[in-house]
Amino acid sequence: MKLWSKDNTDTSQLVEKFTVGKDKEFDLLLAPFDVQGSIAHAHMLASVGLLTKEEASTIIAALKKIYRQIHHSQFTIADGIEDVHSQVELLLTQQLGDTGKKIHSARSRNDQVLVDVKLFLRSEIEALVKEVQPFFQLLQAQSEKYKDHLFPGYTHLQLAMPSSFGLWFGAYAESLVDDLITLQSAYQVVNKNPLGSAAGYGSSFPINRTLTTELLGFADLNYNVVYAQMGRGKAERITAMALANLADTLSRLSMDACLYLNQNFDFISFPASLTTGSSIMPHKKNPDV
User: Fold this and answer.
1) What gap in Å lies between CA 93 and CA 143, rounded to an integer?
2) 209 CA to centre of own chain
3) Is residue 75 part of a domain?
């Protein structure tokens, strides 16, 4: 029986399989962020008097225990449990009884999953930017190093004008700058707090959305609770667009490298450890990696 079910009639297993699919597997990626959101929510509930200090302390301690289980890959979503939110609340209830149930006060799974997704996307963007920045610096350094190394410029794969390896490296360095700008734009959209919007119309409880914004490190709120829910998918789409831009840059660079490694060009070479060969053509040096 689901949390939202009002009687003993449950969803057809075929319908559930079609609509849910592998959601539980993906939900595990959100698990640490679900706990972080719940910890911030517990602090907020205590600050407005919906939890006593003792209740909040007990709930937060239990949530930290769950977080450690997640960190050590000991957290799973049990059979019959719909999602990560339900699993966390089930564990709280099993450990704390009715006190554990209070974590859901003034909150819907609608705003809960939005918080999880935004915290997840924020973390992924931060990690990606940290990886892109040193690659940009490498390309920029190579651009300076090889600025006087002549290189034929091509249009339509035809010889066109003299150029340099430095200009080639620099082109991709500058492309990464634009890619970082799009990632930063996605980050700005992601980094807004939807918690407290509930199912799209807010809560009748006297909640403090500013506090959860600060505790979760969001730069700002999604002020309009209707938009917080109406905007579902926007953060994901903008992030996906930013990733597509970055992937396009890397794809172009990779294609150039494959072309210039070709014996007909022979501008660059890869060590054997980065290439594969052929069982019948021993001269082959394939850029498959």
Assistant:
1) 59
2) 23
3) yes
Eight-class DSSP state of 204: S
Give phi and psi for 237, each to the nearest 5. -65, -45
Segment (H or E) for 215? helix 209-215
The pTM assigned to this predicted structure is 0.90
Letter for the amino acid at 36? Q
Residue at 86 is within a domain: yes
d(CA 185, CA 163): 33
Q: How far apart are the first and last CA of the chain?
A: 48
Specify whether the backbone of 68 is left (phi greater than 0), alpha (psi in -120 to 50) or beta. alpha
Give the Cα separation of 172 and 247 in Å (integer). Answer: 12
CA distances from 181 to 132, 174, 176, 185 (A): 12, 11, 9, 6
Based on C-alpha coordinates, what's the Rg of the chain? 26
CB 114 within 8 A of CB 30: no
Per the document, the length of the chain is 289
Q: What is the pLDDT of residues 51-83, one digit of tens each?
A: 999 999 999 999 999 999 999 999 999 988 989
Q: Which of 83, 81, 104 is nearest to 92 (CA)?
A: 104
**107 near 195, Cβ under 8 Å?**
yes
Which residues are known catalytic residues?
Answer: 156, 278
Could you tell me if 157 and 247 lie in one domain? yes
CB within 8 Å of 23: residues ≥ 6 apart: 83
Distance CA(246)–CA(147), nearest Å, equals: 24
What is the spatial distance between Cα 177 and Cα 110, in angstroms, rounded to a whole number? Answer: 35
- In a 13 Å sphere around the CA of 273, the CA atoms on its Cβ side amount to 0
**Does residue 240 sit in the same domain as residue 263?**
yes
Strand partners, 143: none
Specify whether 92 is located in the same domain as 128: no
Range with lowest mean pLDDT among 67-71, 220-224, 268-272: 268-272
